[in-house]
Give the backbone structure.
Amino acid sequence: MNENARIAVVGATGLVGREVLSALFDQGIASERVSALASERSEALELEYGEDTLEVEKTTPEAFRGVGVALLATPASASRSLAQVAQAAGAWVVDVSPAFRADGNVPLVLPSFNPEVLGAAFKGRIISLPSAVSTALVSVLAPLHKSFGVVRAQVTAMMGVSSAGVGGVSELEKQTAGLLSGREPEPQTFPHRVGFNLVPQVGAFLANSPWTEEEAGWTLEAARLFGARGDTPVIAGTAVQVPTFHGHGLSLHVQLKAAVPVEQARAALKASSALKVLDAPAEKVYPMPMLVTADPTVHVGRLRTFPQAPEWLTLFAAVDNAGRGAALNLVEAGLKLLQRPA
Ligand SMILES: NC(=O)c1ccc[n+]([C@@H]2O[C@H](COP(=O)([O-])OP(=O)(O)OC[C@H]3O[C@@H](n4cnc5c(N)ncnc54)[C@H](OP(=O)(O)O)[C@@H]3O)[C@@H](O)[C@H]2O)c1
C-alpha cells in the first residue's frame, strides 16, 4: 500500500472526527491527502486543518475512490453500511463505533495493546476499535494482568456528556443554562436530565437484560482482547452519565491472583508507556478528567489496598474519551494499515 495514499475521515464534523483531523495534522499528514466526509447536512462546510481548511464532502461511494484508509467516526447505524462501501472501493476501514465490536469476523484492535493484528492476515479489510472506557480499562489492566494476573475487575465509569458527541455537549450546555435560570429542561439525548444530576444509564439497555450496551461492551471487548492471549479477567461495572463535558473517570477495584504490595503494582503501571501514574495523594495529585484533555496517555492513581482483602487493588483512572479513547486509536490503526502491502 502506498504510504502517501489518501485518508478519508468520515464523520469529520463530529466530536471525534474533529479530533481525528487534529491528530492527522499533528502527524504531519498534508491536507491534500485528507478528505473530510460527513452527512448531506454538512456538505460544503469548512473545517480547520492546521493553517488550511478542508471542505466537507457528502459521503457517497465515489468519495472513497482512491482512498487508502477510511477512518469512520460515525454512529453505528451509518458505520455498518459505510464500512462495506469503503471496503468495496478497496480502502482499509477502521471503525470506532460499536457496529463491529462484537463481530467475530472483524478484528478488534487497541493499537497500544495488540498492534500486531494490523500487520497480520485477516478476512476482509475492516478493523473495529474498542470503546473509550474499554481503552482505559485494558490500558490499566494489561500491565497488572501481565505481572500479577487479574482475576476480575469491577468498575464504575463516570462518563462526561461528550460520550454522546456534539449533541451531548450542547444538551448539557442548554440544561445548565436553563436550570440556572430556574427552568426545568426536557431531556432529549439522555434518558433523564443530566444537568446537576447523575444518570446510571449510558446508552440503551440490552433486550431482556439489566445491563446497558455500554456496560456489556466492556466485558465483551476485554474478553476479545485479553482472550486472544489466554485467560481473560472478568470485567463488570456500572456506566454513569455525569454532568461534566470532556473526559471519563473510572473507579476500579481489581482482584489480583494474590496479594501484591502497592509499590509493586505502582511500578508495573509506571512501566507502561500507555499510562501516566499520578499518585501523590498527600500533595493532592491524582487523575481527574480536567487533567487528561489532549493527553495521549491514560492517567491512573489513588492506588491502595486494605488489610482484610489484600489481593484487591483499588484505584482511579481518567481518559480523554474523544482523543485517547477514539481519535488517536483511529489514526494509529489507520496509519499502520497503510504500511501493509496492498
Ligand atoms: N464521543 C466519544 O467520546 C466517543 C468515544 C469512542 C467512540 N465513539 C464513537 O464515535 C462515533 C462518533 O461519535 P461522536 O461523539 O463524534 O458523534 P457526533 O459528534 O454526533 O458526530 C457524528 C458524526 O457522524 C456524521 N454522520 C452521521 N450520520 C452520517 C451518515 N449517514 N453519513 C456520513 N456521516 C454521518 C455526522 O455528520 P453531520 O455533522 O453531517 O451530521 C458527524 O460528523 C460514534 O459511533 C461513537 O459511538 C465516540
About this structure: The helical segments are 15-26, 76-88, 132-148, 165-180, 213-227, 262-270, 289-292, 323-337. The first strand starts at residue 6 and ends at 10. The chain has a mean pLDDT of 97. Residues 132-148 form the longest helix (17 residues).
